[in-house]
Amino acid sequence: MSESENYANDVLVSADWVEEHLDDFRSDDPEYRLVEVNSPESPDDDFPSRYDEGHVPGAIGMQWDEDLSDPQERDILKKDDFEQVVGDAGISADSTVVFYGDGWIPNWFALFAYWEFKYYGHEDARVLNGGKDYWVNNDYELTDEVPDFPGVEYHARGPFENIRAYKDDVDKAIESGLPLVDVRSPEEFRGEIIAPEGLQETAQRGGHIPGASNVPVKQVLNDDGTFKSAAELRELYASHDVDGEESIIAYCRVGERSSIEWFALHELLGFGDVRNYDGSWTEWGNLVRAPIETGEKN
Length: 298
Hints:
Elements: E1 12-13, H1 15-20, H2 22-26, E2 32-38, E3 59-63, H3 64-67, E4 69-70, E5 75-76, H4 79-88, E6 96-101, H5 110-119, E7 125-128, H6 131-137, H7 167-176, E8 180-182, H8 186-190, E9 213-214, H9 230-238, E10 248-251, H10 256-268, E11 274-276, H11 280-284
Parallel strand pairs: 1-7, 2-3, 2-6, 6-7, 8-9, 8-10, 10-11
Antiparallel strand pairs: 4-5
């Protein structure tokens, strides 16, 4: 099932593997479920087609901001809401769930959905390597048929807080000199801009958390949107003194891009203590008296 790049965990599937299992994804039997997660906004118009314009046959459509977030608290779903949404979609706790999505970064919000499912303890979650961009660009089958799976009872095992970081965790990391990985663009990291062009500015100030290293998320991906090999990823992070020997916190603007690098660090490389700070710059850049650095890392 996995890609043969010497990854630590069997969490990536190829487009060919998904194609071979389309009948399973179309079935009412919840053993296999495929989920397309669309992003709520885009900095350009060069996206693969949205879910209702064409998706992988059998795929359930979810919207990050509407289906997987609490809009009042700007937070992920509470446990009972998560269970309701997932169960209503026909996903059981025993389902093999494969995520994929659109975006100017492949699987942009699909990896956030993967992280949220893992936070609530879903055991068998996978990701389509390369996302929807790869599927579309390589002429795999698309459909506009929307599946209507019977709902099921879903009981989450989590939450598992060991993969999530909060402000207090970031404060401790700064004090202890533990690795902080800022996955945003160099311009965001330096404080020249607050959000990528075309996206809403969600913070009052620009810059980065003191001590953070800048590893822009596209550096972990190949040109076709698939993940780089384990050896390449280790070399990339080692060049920023991130080797998995210490606790690591990844962050971005709203926690979605950082979920991609959380996935690379924790799931693909197998680093044990990696957390996604989903408050990210939206929280930190608005905090009164929070320390902020600008420019390149010293």
